[in-house]
Amino acid sequence: MLAAAAVVRLTAVIGYVPALWFNDSFEYLGVALRPQPYVVRPSGYSFFLMALEPFHSFRLVVVVQHLLGLAVAVMIYVLLRRYDMPGWLAALATVPQLFDGYQIQVEHMVMAETLFTVLAVAAVVTLLWWRRPPTIAALAAGGLLAGAALTRTVGLPLAVVAGLWLLARRPGWRPVLAFCLTLLIPLGCYGVWFQTVHGQVGIVGSDGVFLYSRTTSFVDCARTHPPADLAVLCPREQLDARQPPSNYIWHTDTPLHGIPGAVFSPAKESLAGRFARRAVVTQPLDYAGIVLRDFSRTFGPRLTDYPNAGMVRPFMFHVPPDPVPDRTFIPGGSSPEDVRAYEHGGGTHRLHQPFATWLEVYQRQVAVPGPVLGLLLFGAVLGIATASRYRAHLRTPLSLITAAGLTLLAVPPLTAGFDHRYVLPALAFLGAGAGLGLRILATGVSRPKAVRPCFSRRRRPESPGHHEVDPCH
After folding, report:
1. Transmembrane stretches, by residue range (predicted)?
2. What is the spatial distance between Cα 339 and Cα 202, in angstroms, rounded to a whole number?
3. In this structure, is residue 388 part of a structural domain?
4. Across the strands, what pairs with 469?
């Protein structure tokens, strides 16, 4: 199965040379060539590009990302086997990560999703490797989650979820302290760097703008009664004619662009944040309803043009692929100039047939349907609900895996809006959670004698007269 998944990825490497692009790609690239704490998103992925820059090859970048995508599946498989899951079921749980066409396509893009996924999955696997995480595991997990948070901001709530799970395990003060230190020190250092450059504390300066875009889907200024300085941000359209949230950030005919200054300037960020918080507090039920609506898009058809066709097309293998735009995303160099500086070449696409067209068809035919994603999540939740009766020892790992997947799916609709690519980092967690859930449910049907995972620690003797018992035998 791993070999077949590797062959599909090799087809991408051969068919689409050197890589695929999205607008964000050139922002990551510009920051890699001119290091800075970027105001829109953290710079972790740019550090990754910086590390590979001496090789001057975007093809190498995507090859490494494809290998990381395979590594995610291997980590999930090994973890599930450690929890006494049959090999066939553990392998089946990795199918969404290994073969989903959208997952393979995003690995072939100069984008942060793959790096973020491997850091998040590695952190969860590290915490779950032992029945009660030791200090070294907590130390490593905190550092991995710090890296994830500096790659995509959704890593911050994921770190909070993992930290709360760790506290619930009561591992002692040393693992908790180790986790906090390796999580907070990198974030703190980056925050200081960000403050020295932008004059404000944080790792990004765009939270208020993105939350404002979220509220444009439901806000009714006749009900929120914003003061004059905030009223300029009221959407002009009627509620049933509102644009997708992202349009209110990036389109120039929207209220945010009617205010002088850069979109993510501190003044606009503050104004947008105040407007958004007022809308959420004044219309909490409307906010909840719009979040649930967008969250439900996760489990609908995946081939929809939402938020619009222009945003979806770059995340599809297509012939011909999108060229490098002649634009400047990060001051100091245009996109073509940055591509030439990094690649030591033009970065022009070179397609090799029939591989390119085959991948275009593959992605449309081989992708986990949205309703199946819902079933995977339902299977994990049902497993948690029944674990106490049949396999109580599996509830702990299943709870963290499911919470991680839910966090990755829920935070974007809560803070910005739905986008199909935001689903991809959750695929590995959904597959693993469903696998564990199915294992629990199957136990409920057959009701065999419970078998605990084979950890290295020995159980203490039940009484002074008993010998120490090795749970692995």
Report:
1. 58-80, 110-130, 136-168, 175-194, 366-386, 398-416, 422-442
2. 29
3. no
4. 459
Q: Which residues contact 353 (CB under 8 A, 6 or more apart)?
A: 15
Q: Rounded CA gap, 207 and 459, in Å?
A: 48
With left for phi above 0 and alpha for psi between -120 and 50, is residue 202 left, alpha or beta?
left
Do 148 and 233 fall into the same domain? Answer: no
Sign of the alpha-carbon dihedral angle for 222, 227, 230, 232: positive
- Using DSSP bridges, classify how beta strands 350-351 and 16-17 pair: parallel, antiparallel or unpaired: antiparallel
Residues 84 and 175 in one domain: yes
Q: Is 370:300 a contact under the CB 8 Å cutoff?
A: yes
Rg of the chain taking only CA atoms, in angstroms = 23
Euclidean distance between CA atoms 381 and 433, whole angstroms: 8
C-beta separation of 420 from 102 below 8 A:
yes
pLDDT the model gives residue 33 = 98
Q: CA-to-CA distance for 48 and 290, rounded, in angstroms?
A: 35
Residues of the chain whose pLDDT is less than 70? 389-390, 444-473
Question: Which residues 6+ apart lie within 8 Å of 264 measured at CB?
Answer: 39, 40, 205, 206, 209
Amino acid at 84: D
Q: What is the pLDDT of residues 359-398, one digit of tens each?
A: 999 999 999 999 999 999 999 999 999 987 667 789 999 9
What was the pLDDT predicted at 64?
98
Decide if 394 is inside a domain: no
Burial class (CB in 10 A: 0-12, 13-18, 19+), 295: middle
Residues 333-354 as b or e (16 or more Cβ within 10 Å = b): bbbbebbebbbeeebebeeeee
State residue 168's pLDDT score.
94
DSSP string, 239-297: GGGPPPTTHHHH-TTSGGGGSSS-TT-HHHHHHHHHHHHHHHHH-HHHHHHHHHHHHHG
Domain endpoint, select from 268, 298, 328: 298
Helices 58-82 and 2-15: angle between axes, nearest 10 degrees: 170
Supply the range of the domain harboring residue 358: 2-194+301-368+403-418
Q: Is 125 found in the same domain as 87?
A: yes
Place of tokens 């992605």: 363
Within its chain, how far is the Cα of 250 from the centroid?
A: 22
Query: Are 52 and 165 in a shared domain?
Result: yes
Closest among 366, 345, 353 to 100, alpha carbons compared: 366
